[in-house]
C-alpha cells in the first residue's frame, strides 16, 4: 500500500486515495527511513522529510521552543530543533535505580531539565538536542527502558490502573498490560539497529500483526480495575475491564472505540465513548487484542487521517459488524458483559496501606512537571527518595506519582524527605488535585492556547468561586484544560473542559461526569478567561443551592438543562 494513487476500499465502500503518511510508512523499510544519515548530519539540528514522522515510531517528536521561535527567525537562525522523548512504561512502574538514571539524564542533557509525567502513565524528556539522542537511547536501554511505539501509528503505551493497595489483583492486571504491550509491539529491528548499534538484519518477519504499513492511526489500550477509572477508558481504542472473583482476576469485559480528539470546525470529528463488546476469559485476551487491532488495521480509514481512528471505523461499518469480525478473527465469542461500575478517576493523594501491609504514598505533582522550583525542589526530592526507597514508583494516568511498597520502618523517612522537598503539601486543595492540563506551550507545536502554564492560577480563581458559594473543600469539579482540540488532558471527559481556540480564548464544555462515562457538550465558544469565570460564577452559584445531595457539577448541568446530554456522539455532540 505504498502508492498514494491507490484508492482504499473497505467492505465495498470507497474511502479515497491513500494519504501521504501511507506512502511514507510503506517506503520506510520497516521504520528505518534515513534516520541514521540525518543523525550524522551536523548542518541541521532537525530531521528531514519522512524522517520527521518516522522518528515518532521510535518514541520521539521533533520540537522547538515556541517562546523563542520568533526571535530566532529575526536573527535568521533555524528554529532550535530538539526532540521530546516519551518512554514505554506499561502500567507506569519504574524502579528507584531507573528513576535515578532518568533524573540524571534530564538534569544533565535536556534543555528544560525536567521530567514530565504524562496522562498516559509514562515520562517525557523535553529538549534533547541531536548530539544527545543516541546516548539517551543507550542510557535507557542499559536500565531496561525503551521508547518503541510510544508515538506513531501503532499501539501506544498500555495503561493499567495504578492501585497498589489490592496488590495481588493489581499484579495480575499489570502483567496483562505488559503482555498486551509486548504482543502488539512492532517487530522491526529498526530501533535496535539505529539507536543501540544492533546488528543489521533483513526483516524476515513482515510485521504479522501491524502490517508493513502499520496502523491507520495511533491506537490506545488500557487494563482497568473497577471501580477506579483512573485510566479513563473512554479515551481509548481498546479496554480490558478486569473482572475479579474473590479478589482473583477471572477475565475481562472488552470495550472498544473510545477517543477524544476533534478538529475545530470539522463536524465529522468528535470525542466518543467506547462500546461494550462483551466478556472474555483470560486465555482469550491476546487473541482478542490482536483481532481488534487487525480489524482496525484493515478497515480503518487510510485516506483521511482525521477520520482514521477506531471510533470512526465503528461508526462507519457498524458496531455489530466490527464486533462479529473480531469474533471471527479471534475465534472467540463474546459472552454477556459482567457487572462492573466506576466510581471515580482521581488518585488517593497521601498515604494508604495495602492489603499486604505495605504503605503507598501518592504524590500530587501539579501538571506532572518534575523540576526544582524556588523553595520547592521537587525533582531533587524524588531523587533523594529514590536513593533510599526499596519498593518501586508508579506513574499514574493523572500525571501523579506513587512511592509504592514502602515498609513500615521506611515510612517516616520517606514522609520526611517528601515534606522537606515540597512533594507533600497539606495546603493543596481537593479542587487542585481534580484539575489537569496538557503540556501545550512552549513545546507543543499544535498548541493554540496555554494549558500547563495557565492552569495553576486558573485553579486559584476556581477555588475562590467555590469558596464564594460556600462549597466545602471536598466538593470539587473535575476540571481539565487542553491547549487545542486534540484533547491530551482529556478535557472531553471532564465536568468542565476548556479547549484552546486562540491565545487567551477557549471553548467551554460542560456536562461530563465524575466517573468519566459522559462526554461534555460545548456551552460557549471562543470566550476569554474572564468570560469563562463569569459563566462559572453563575453556574457554581446554582449548583451550590439547587443540587441534590451529592450531585456532581456535571450531572447538575444536565439535569438543570444547561447543556444537553451527549448519548451518541455522532448524533449529539455537534447538534
Ligand atoms: Fe497527545 C499529539 C502530548 C495524551 C490526543 N500530544 C500530541 C503531541 C505529541 C503534539 C504533536 O503531535 O506534535 C503533544 C506533545 C506536547 C509536548 O510538548 O509534550 C502531546 N498527549 C500529550 C501528553 C504529554 C499530554 C500531557 O500533558 O500529559 C500525553 C502523552 C501521553 C503518553 O504518554 O502517551 C498525551 N494525547 C493524549 C491523550 C489522552 C490519553 O490518551 O489518555 C489524547 C486524547 C485521547 C485520544 O487519543 O483520543 C491525545 N495528542 C492527541 C492527538 C489527537 C489524536 C487524534 O485522534 O486525532 C494528537 C495529534 C495527532 O495525533 O495528530 C496529539
Ligand atoms: Fe498539544 Fe493540543 Fe495535546 Fe495540548 S491538547 S499537548 S496543545 S496537541
Automatic annotation (TrEMBL):
Cofactor info, note text: Binds 1 siroheme per subunit. Binds 1 [4Fe-4S] cluster per subunit.
MF term (GO), any: metal ion binding
Record-listed E.C. numbers: 1.8.1.2
Keywords: 4Fe-4S, Amino-acid biosynthesis, Cysteine biosynthesis, Heme, Iron, Iron-sulfur, Metal-binding, NADP, Oxidoreductase
Pathway field: Sulfur metabolism; hydrogen sulfide biosynthesis; hydrogen sulfide from sulfite (NADPH route): step 1/1
SUPFAM superfamilies linked to this entry: Nitrite and sulphite reductase 4Fe-4S domain-like, Nitrite/Sulfite reductase N-terminal domain-like
Reactions catalysed according to its record: hydrogen sulfide + 3 NADP(+) + 3 H2O = sulfite + 3 NADPH + 4 H(+)
Residues given in the record as siroheme binding sites: 488
Keyword Iron-sulfur among UniProt keywords: yes
Keyword S-adenosyl-L-methionine attached: no
Any single Gene Ontology cellular-component annotation: sulfite reductase complex (NADPH)
InterPro entries xref list: CysI, NiRdtase/SiRdtase_haem-b_fer, Nit/Sulf_reduc_fer-like_dom_sf, NO2/SO3_Rdtase_4Fe4S_dom, NO2/SO3_Rdtase_4Fe4S_prot, NO2/SO3_Rdtase_4Fe4S_sf, NO2/SO3_Rdtase_FeS/sirohaem_BS
Residues the entry annotates as binding [4Fe-4S] cluster: 438, 444, 484, 488
GO biological process: cysteine biosynthetic process; hydrogen sulfide biosynthetic process; sulfate assimilation
Cofactor: siroheme; [4Fe-4S] cluster
All residue ranges annotated as the Nitrite/sulphite reductase 4Fe-4S domain in the record: 176-331
Nitrite/Sulfite reductase ferredoxin-like domain segment(s): 82-142, 356-416
Functional summary from the UniProt entry: Component of the sulfite reductase complex that catalyzes the 6-electron reduction of sulfite to sulfide. This is one of several activities required for the biosynthesis of L-cysteine from sulfate.
Alphabetical list of PANTHER family matching this protein: SULFITE REDUCTASE [NADPH] SUBUNIT BETA, SULFITE REDUCTASE [NADPH] SUBUNIT BETA-RELATED
Subunit details: Alpha(8)-beta(8). The alpha component is a flavoprotein, the beta component is a hemoprotein.
Similarity remark: Belongs to the nitrite and sulfite reductase 4Fe-4S domain family.
Name this polypeptide is given: Sulfite reductase [NADPH] hemoprotein beta-component
Organism: Vibrio palustris
Top-level taxonomy: Bacteria, Pseudomonadati, Pseudomonadota, Gammaproteobacteria, Vibrionales
Amino acid at each position: 500500500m505504498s502508492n498514494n494513487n491507490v484508492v482504499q476500499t473497505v467492505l465495498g465502500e470507497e474511502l479515497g486515495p491513500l494519504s501521504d503518511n501511507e506512502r511514507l510508512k510503506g517506503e520506510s523499510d520497516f521504520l528505518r527511513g534515513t534516520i541514521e544519515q540525518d543523525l550524522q548530519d551536523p548542518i541541521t539540528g532537525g530531521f528531514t522529510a519522512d524522517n520527521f514522522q518516522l522518528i515518532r515510531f521510535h518514541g520521539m517528536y521533533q520540537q522547538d521552543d515556541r517562546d523563542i521561535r520568533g526571535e530566532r527567525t529575526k536573527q535568521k537562525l533555524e528554529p532550535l530543533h530538539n526532540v521530546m522523548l516519551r518512554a514505554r512504561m506499561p502500567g507506569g512502574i519504574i524502579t528507584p535505580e531507573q528513576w535515578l538514571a532518568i533524573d540524571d539524564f534530564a538534569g544533565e542533557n535536556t534543555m528544560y531539565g525536567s521530567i514530565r509525567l504524562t496522562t498516559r502513565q509514562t515520562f517525557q524528556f523535553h529538549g534533547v538536542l541531536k548530539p544527545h539522542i543516541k546516548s539517551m537511547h543507550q542510557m535507557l536501554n542499559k536500565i531496561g527502558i525503551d521508547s518503541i511505539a510510544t508515538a506513531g501509528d501503532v499501539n501506544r503505551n498500555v495503561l493499567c490502573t495504578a492501585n497498589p493497595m489490592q496488590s495481588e489483583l493489581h499484579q495480575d492486571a499489570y502483567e496483562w498490560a505488559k503482555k498486551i504491550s509486548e504482543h502488539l509491539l512492532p517487530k522491526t529491528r529498526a530501533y535496535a539497529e539505529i539507536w543501540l548499534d544492533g546488528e543489521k538484519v533483513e526483516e524476515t518477519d513482515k510485521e504479522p500483526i501491524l502490517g508493513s504499513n502499520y496502523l491507520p492511526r495511533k491506537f490506545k489500550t488500557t487494563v482497568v480495575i473497577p471501580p477506579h477509572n483512573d485510566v479513563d477508558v473512554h479515551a481509548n481504542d481498546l479496554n480490558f475491564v478486569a473482572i475479579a472473583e474473590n479478589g482473583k482476576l477471572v477475565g475481562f469485559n472488552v470495550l472498544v472505540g473510545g477517543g477524544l480528539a476533534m478538529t475545530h470546525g470539522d463536524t465529522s470529528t468528535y470525542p466518543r465513548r467506547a462500546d461494550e463488546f462483551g466478556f472474555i476469559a483470560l486465555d482469550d485476551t491476546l487473541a482478542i487484542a490482536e483481532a481488534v487491532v487487525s480489524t482496525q488495521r484493515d478497515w480503518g480509514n487510510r485516506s483521511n487521517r482525521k477520520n482514521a481512528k477506531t471510533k470512526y471505523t465503528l461508526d462507519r461499518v457498524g458496531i455489530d459488524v466490527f464486533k462479529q469480525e473480531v469474533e471471527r478473527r479471534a475465534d472467540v465469542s463474546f459472552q454477556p458483559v459482567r457487572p462492573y461500575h466506576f466510581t471515580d478517576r482521581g488518585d488517593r493523594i497521601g498515604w494508604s496501606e495495602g492489603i499486604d501491609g505495605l504503605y503507598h504514598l501518592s504524590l500530587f505533582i501539579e501538571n506532572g512537571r518534575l523540576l526544582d522550583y524556588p523553595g520547592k525542589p521537587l525533582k531533587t526530592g524524588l531523587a533523594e527518595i529514590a536513593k533510599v526507597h526499596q519498593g518501586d514508583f508508579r506513574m499514574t494516568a493523572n500525571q501523579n506519582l506513587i512511592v509504592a511498597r514502602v515498609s513500615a520502618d521506611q515510612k517516616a523517612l520517606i514522609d520526611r524527605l517528601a515534606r522537606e522537598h515540597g512533594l507533600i503539601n497539606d495546603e493543596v486543595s481537593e479542587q487542585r488535585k481534580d484539575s489537569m492540563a496538557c503540556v501545550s506551550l512552549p513545546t507543543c507545536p499544535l498548541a493554540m492556547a496555554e494549558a500547563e502554564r495557565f492552569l495553576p492560577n486558573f485553579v486559584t480563581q476556581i477555588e475562590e468561586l467555590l469558596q464564594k458559594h460556600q462549597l466545602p473543600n471536598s466538593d470539587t469539579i473535575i476540571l481539565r484544560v487542553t491547549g487545542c482540540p486534540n484533547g491530551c488532558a482529556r478535557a472531553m471527559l471532564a465536568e468542565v473542559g476548556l479547549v484552546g481556540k486562540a491565545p487567551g480564548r477557549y471553548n467551554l464544555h460542560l456536562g461530563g461526569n465524575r466517573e468519566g462515562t459522559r462526554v461534555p457538550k460545548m456551552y460557549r465558544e471562543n470566550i476569554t478567561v474572564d468570560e469563562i469565570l463569569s459563566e462559572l460564577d453563575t453556574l457554581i452559584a446554582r449548583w451550590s443551592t439547587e443540587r441534590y445531595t451529592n450531585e456532581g457539577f456535571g450531572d447538575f448541568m444536565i439535569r438543570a438543562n444547561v447543556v444537553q446530554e451527549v448519548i451518541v456522539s455522532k448524533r449529539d455532540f455537534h447538534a
